[in-house]
Each structure stands twice: as structure tokens, then as C-alpha cells.
UniProtKB/TrEMBL annotation:
SUPFAM superfamilies in the record: Protein kinase-like (PK-like)
Matching InterPro entries: Kinase-like_dom_sf, Prot_kinase_dom
Segments of this protein annotated with the region Disordered: 360-388
Native organism taxonomy: Bacteria, Pseudomonadati, Myxococcota, Myxococcia, Myxococcales
Start and end residues of each Protein kinase domain: 28-314
Taxonomic source organism: Pyxidicoccus fallax
Keyword Oxidoreductase: no
One Pfam family, short name: Pkinase
Key words of the record: ATP-binding, Kinase, Membrane, Nucleotide-binding, Transferase, Transmembrane, Transmembrane helix
Name the record gives this protein: Protein kinase
Hydrolase as UniProt keyword: no
Chain segments annotated as transmembrane: 397-416
């Protein structure tokens, strides 16, 4: 992730490398944490005006378009207030927020807004990065530990689902993006669920998928037309079931070679039981996971609390050991001690500033060549090299110019013919993909306009326009068309319009 910060922000030191050391209101951004969650984050420290340093925090940034700027601020404020009502040991606390407005562009274009959410910072690893580290070592997460971690996440979800406002009215909080990238495992053996106030704000402010992680999208979230999808707490139960599946097997249950097929599998619930990838898993684990991620909401656990009880009962059958101690020892076995020490002992800002300044000075010294008069070879000064003089004959230049013009005209003619053939090939591939794309309409009697942009390297981006834009059916069409074997000609971008008629 590229964390965008505008030049108007006050900065202390900005070397070419890390640390960042940007001043953001009451905070100084120290390190970039792109692996944190699905949006990335900055590790920052709250600093008073007199330089007194306080606790470390994480800053998450949510950009939105200028077209929604007027209504976006109130939406963000509402979601932030809902997130601050969540209080549970397994939920990453939301501390602060602010709305960042960059300077007016010289072109006079509307200014986008940047919502910045501040949460507590804890030392640990995301479940997603833990699974990647285990895969690199050819290992799997212990079954009792995976069940215990999932139980802690279930407790967090239930607390969020039951959260109320000051008058005792249920806030209706849903996470909407339960995935390994939002489960934080701390080095002292804790489990924190992050992403509250982020996923739902993104839903309300931006077009596109409601669930950022393909596996976290329950089948009932399919949309045949425009508008928001109404889902309940069982959608988060489904997301936790998929997360537990990945923790146990290291495999995304809906991952397919093509993104289009992955989306289709997630919509239909087409996934083998976990024991298919890990044969030693007992049938009781298979039954729990497959029930949590059942395609029909009524077949799942009714609440996250019910799922938590089932997880704890199943874990007890494996071992009565303390989960916190087991998790802490597990993380220290998986990750190098240097990495853990670096994340648990962040230096003071004065040390970071001195280190950054020294690195910047060293880099400038390396990039600045010595003056020509001081260059020496074995102690002997090198004499300056006289400039090269080019003398041309007018008649010879005229001859060369005509010859080059003749060659250029031939090249341009050949390029035109080649481009025409390339466009024909692109059109043929687009026609071949229409049948697959039409299947996404699922009986809708609508005419859909799709714009395809090819960057000349075989990569295509599809954008559905009209009522289906941003819907599940629209994304299904986009995945179907972008997954086609597009021809490529480097440096030749092409835009193709595809019209689909429902049946």
C-alpha cells in the first residue's frame, strides 16, 4: 500500500528511506505498516507541543472522492462514534479521528477528503502474515491454537453486535470484513480484531465490493441490482468461519486460478472441508467450520457467542492449556527474535531523527560526485576533456534527412496496419467473452454497457456502467472479462466497449 500524505503536512525529516517522521496533528508518523489490515496503517506516536512523547498509535487512512465530500464527513463522524462505543479486550480500541483536507489544486479541481482513524497500537503480527511465515517454513498452525484464536475473535464480534448507544439502543454494528488481515496476534498472547469503523465507512463512502476479502463475502450478499445489501450478524459468523478455515489449512477455500472463478465459488459456497487439505483434522472440526460458513444464513450459528461456545468446547477436547501462553510461545517460535524486539521497542523520536539525518547526509555524500578539477587517477590530476565539435555538410544533411523521412513513412504505415490487426484481435476476444459475462446477469433483463481498458501488456480493466455498476453481478461481469486471454502489444493501450443483453 502507498500511504498518501500531502506536502502541506508538516514534516520533521523526510529521508529517502525509513523512518517517515511526518507530523500529523498531535502525532508523528514513525513507520509504515502496509501489512496491517486491508488498508495498511502508519505506526505513529502522540507528541505534545513541547516535545513530550506519549503512547504509540496506528493511523488508518480512508480516501474518498471529491464528489462525495459534502456528505462524507458526517458519515465518517457517525462511524467513528459507533467504533468508540466498542469496548472489549479482543477489539482494537478506536482513540481518535480527524478529517484531512489537502491544499487546493492549482488546476482548480475539487479537493478529495482523507479520513484518518487512530487506534491503539499493540506489538504483534497479523494472522495473515503469520500464515505466510508458516507456509514459508512448510508448517501449519496447531489445531487447538487456531480454535482458541477463532474463539477470541468470536467473543469480539459478539461484543460488537451487542454494543448499544447511550440510550441503550443497539447500534447494529457489523464488521463486514472478518479476514486474517484484520486479526492481530500480540506477542504477549493476546488477540485483537481490527477494522471496526473502517470497513463500514468504506461501504458507505465508496462504490465497489462491500466485503474487501473475497472469502468474507457471504452468498446472501449477492445483489441483482443497485442499492445496499442488507445482511445481519450471521455474515460476520460466515467471515470468521472462512478465516478459521484458512488458519487451519493455510488455504483460501475459494481460491481458484481465475478471479472470476473465485468469485463464483464464493457465491455458491463451493469449498471442500478443511480435512481435504489437512487429513489429520477430525470430523468435529470439519463440522464446525462448514457450519460456520454454510451458504444459507439459517444453517449457520445464529450468533457469534454460540460459535464461541462451540469453539471453546472443541478446543477443550484437544487440550486444557492456557491459550495466551501457547500463542506467545508460538509467535516467538515462528518469527525471529530481532523482528519481535524491533516491534516491541520503538526508539525515541530524538534517536530516530538523529539516525534519519545521518542516513540522509550519507546518501547525499554518496550521490554527489567530486568536482572535475579534483578527479585523480593514482594521484595524477586528469586533464579536462575538450568538447567534441561536429561539422556537417549542408548537402549531406539534406540527403540524410530525406532518407530518414522515407524510412519513417514506411515504419508508420507498417505500424498502422499492425495496430489495425491488434484491434481486430482484441475485438475477437471481447466477443468470445460475451457469453461468459452474460451468465452473470442471472436472468436480469437489462442491457449492460462495459468499458474495457487494455494497457498494452495483456492486462485489462473492466468497468460496468449503469444500474449494475458496483453490484455483485457487475463485479462478476468485470471479473469474467478481465480474466480473458487478451492479446498484448506493449505501448498500445486500447479501449473497447462491450454491450451485454440479459435474457
Amino acid at each position: 500500500m502507498s500511504f498518501l500524505l500531502y506536502p502541506s503536512r508538516e514534516r520533521a525529516v523526510f529521508p529517502d528511506g525509513k523512518p517517515l517522521l511526518w507530523r500529523l496533528g498531535d502525532y508523528v508518523a514513525v513507520y509504515q505498516r502496509p501489512e496491517f489490515g486491508t488498508t495498511g496503517a502508519l505506526l505513529a506516536r502522540r507528541v505534545d507541543a513541547d516535545g513530550t512523547e506519549h503512547e504509540d498509535v496506528l493511523i488508518h487512512q480512508l480516501p474518498t472522492s471529491a464528489a462525495l465530500a459534502k456528505s462524507s464527513a458526517s458519515v465518517f463522524e457517525e462511524e467513528w462514534r459507533r467504533a468508540t462505543r466498542l469496548s472489549h479486550p479482543n477489539i482494537l480500541r478506536t482513540l481518535d479521528r480527524w478529517l484531512d483536507t489537502p491544499p487546493e489544486p492549482e488546476s482548480g479541481a475539487p479537493r478529495p477528503l482523507f479520513f484518518q482513524l487512530v487506534t491503539e497500537a499493540v506489538a504483534g503480527e497479523m494472522l495473515s502474515s503469520t500464515l505466510v511465515a508458516l507456509e514459508a517454513k512448510g508448517e501449519r498452525m496447531p489445531v487447538p491454537l487456531a480454535l482458541w484464536v477463532a474463539a477470541q475473535v468470536a467473543h469480539a464480534l459478539h461484543a460488537a453486535h451487542e454494543a448499544t448507544d447511550a440510550q441503550g439502543k443497539n447500534l447494529g454494528v457489523l464488521h463486514r470484513d472478518v479476514a486474517p488481515a484484520h486479526v492481530l496476534l500480540t506477542y504477549d498472547g493476546g488477540v485483537k480484531l481490527s477494522g471496526f469503523g473502517i470497513a463500514h465507512t468504506a461501504v458507505r463512502l465508496m462504490s465497489g465490493p462491500i466485503f474487501k476479502h473475497v472469502g468474507s463475502q457471504p452468498p446472501e450478499a449477492q445483489r441483482k441490482g443497485g442499492g445496499q445489501v442488507q445482511v445481519d450478524r450471521r455474515a460476520d459468523v460466515y467471515g470468521l468461519g472462512v478465516t478459521l478455515y484458512e488458519a487451519l489449512t493455510g488455504v483460501d477455500p475459494f481460491r481458484r486460478p481465475l478471479d472470476y472463478d473465485s468469485l463464483k465459488a464464493a457465491m455458491s459456497g463451493d469449498a471442500p472441508p478443511p480435512s481435504h487439505h489437512r487429513p489429520e483434522l477430525p470430523a468435529t472440526v470439519d463440522a464446525l467450520v462448514m457450519r460456520a460458513m454454510a451458504p444459507r444464513p439459517e444453517d449457520r450459528y445464529a450468533t457469534a457467542a454460540e460459535l464461541a461456545r462451540a469453539l471453546e468446547a472443541l478446543r477443550t477436547a484437544f487440550t486444557p492449556a492456557d491459550g495466551r501462553e501457547e500463542l506467545s510461545a508460538f509467535l516467538r517460535d515462528v518469527f525471529r527474535e530481532e523482528r519481535i524486539r524491533a516491534r516491541t521497542r520503538v526508539p525515541s523520536l530524538s534517536d530516530l531523527l538523529a539516525r534519519a539525518a545521518a542516513e540522509a547526509d550519507a546518501e547525499r555524500a554518496r550521490q554527489s560526485p567530486p568536482p572535475a578539477s579534483t578527479r585523480e587517477v593514482q594521484g595524477v590530476p586528469t586533464p579536462p576533456v575538450p568538447p567534441t565539435r561536429f561539422v556537417s555538410h549542408p548537402r549531406r544533411m539534406l540527403l540524410y534527412g530525406g532518407f530518414l523521412l522515407f524510412i519513417l513513412m514506411g515504419v508508420l504505415a507498417n505500424v498502422a496496419k499492425t495496430r489495425e490487426r491488434f484491434v481486430e484481435e482484441v475485438s475477437a476476444v471481447a466477443r468470445s467473452g460475451q457469453a461468459r459475462a452474460v451468465s452473470c446477469l442471472a436472468g436480469a433483463r437489462e442491457r449492460v454497457r462495459v468499458l474495457l481498458q487494455l494497457d498494452g501488456t495483456g492486462h485489462a480493466e473492466a468497468k460496468v456502467e449503469g444500474p449494475l455498476a458496483g453490484t455483485v453481478a457487475g463485479r462478476c461481469i468485470e471479473e469474467a472479462l478481465t480474466g480473458l486471454p487478451w492479446p498484448h502489444k506493449r505501448g498500445w493501450p486500447v479501449t473497447v466497449e462491450v454491450a451485454l443483453d440479459g435474457v
